[in-house]
Amino acid sequence: MKKKLVSILLTAAMACTLFAGCSSPTQDESDTSSSGTETEADAEASTGSLSEATVVDIANLPIEGIGAQVTSDVKANEEYKIGYIAKNTTNPYMVAQSEGVKKAGEDMGFEAVTQAPSTADSVEEQVKIMEDMIQQQMDVIIVHCADSNGIMSGVRKAEEAGITVITIGTPAAEDTFLRTGVDYKETGEVVAQEIADALGGEGKVIILEGPAGAANAVERLDGINEVFAEYPDIEIVASQTANFKRTEGMSVTENLLQQYTDVDAIIGCNDESALGAMQAVKAAGMDDVLIAGFDGSVDATNAVASGEMYCTYNTDPYGSGYLACAYAVNYLNDGTEPEGKFIPFPTAANDPLITPDTVQDYQDNIAWWKVIQ
Fold it and tell me: Which of 31, 117, 120, 338 has the highest CB neighbour number within 10 Å of its CB?
């Protein structure tokens, strides 16, 4: 089998500086009490990337398309075994990502082995699965880390065994061969710009933040704030956490609307919090507030289609799993390495924004959740 060691280039001092305090258990962005299942696509408290994002021209990616339409011409030259470790089997995002890996195995001609902890989001179980995959002599292990620091013992063992490690979403605490998944800051920029344009550059906005200290939430909020800083007539009247939950999105918005009765837009930093805001706005009898979220979930896209939400963002777990496999197979075939350590997917170039004009096409043809229905 063809295997190569992946070099770790950062010093221990730098790693400690970047990741101090990041060993706490992962926070889930979903609110199961409001929807019955976990539907949040960015369901992790990520620590951010070690490497700067390298955005590749979509024409040069080893895949084509996005969501349910993703395809690739990449083919395995040998009988490779690629393992994928999800965070859980309850979140539709994780299920879709696993399906992306399985479909890549079918299309590209390798054996795909997909597993997840029996206890949702257990990094200890993820490490045990990695150890088992090492014994099974995987050529590549792809993992959606439950915790950046906690996964490192498994990562190091895999790399010592000559197995290439790829992460999706939450990175490991040190650079691996590749990380993919969305660039959270860019997602914030895209949605904030859409809202700014819809408001004509002026208005009052509420932001429902993610969990305090969760780097993916911080990065997304940074992107939103940077865009709005360019519009002096857009006033952020409140920016408060709703912890990526629908129930909190509703209760926080209800409280804020008592103080701010002339709000023009609300951005929830995931679909669940945005859907909670939508419920609060409806209860208040306000029908002219633009509501935006992130993920492209079933409920959110239905709300965009009905006019109750203005937009959301397709974070495409299915495509990101498929893309990780394409890079893995190319490397195993001939040593071709990615253009950078962090290649975001999807990006703005993939047209991930879902608006009233695009929602029907998204639901009919692109939606990542179509692959698990």
Answer: 31
Do 134 and 163 touch, CB atoms closer than 8 A? yes
The amino acid occupying position 273 is S
3-state secondary structure 286-322: CCCCEEECCECCHHHHHHHHHCCCCEEEECCHHHHHH
- Alpha-carbon gap, residue 171 to 200, rounded angstroms: 37
**CA torsion through residues 116, 117, 120, 122, sign:** negative
**pTM (whole model) above 0.85:** no
What six digits make up the tokens of 33? 């009490």
Rounded Cα distance between 340 and 299, Å, is 35
* Cβ neighbour number for residue 327 with a 10 Å cutoff: 25
pLDDT in tens, the chain (373 residues): 444 333 333 333 333 333 333 333 333 343 333 333 334 444 444 444 478 899 999 999 999 999 999 999 999 999 999 999 999 998 888 999 999 999 999 999 999 999 999 999 999 999 999 999 999 999 999 999 988 899 999 999 999 999 999 999 888 999 999 999 999 999 999 999 999 999 999 999 999 999 887 778 888 999 999 999 999 999 999 999 999 999 999 999 999 999 999 999 999 999 999 999 999 999 999 999 999 999 999 999 999 999 999 999 999 999 999 999 999 999 999 999 999 999 999 999 999 999 999 999 999 999 999 999 8
Rounded alpha-carbon distances, angstroms, from residue 178 to 131, 168, 343 = 20, 8, 7
Tokens coding 214: 């969760």
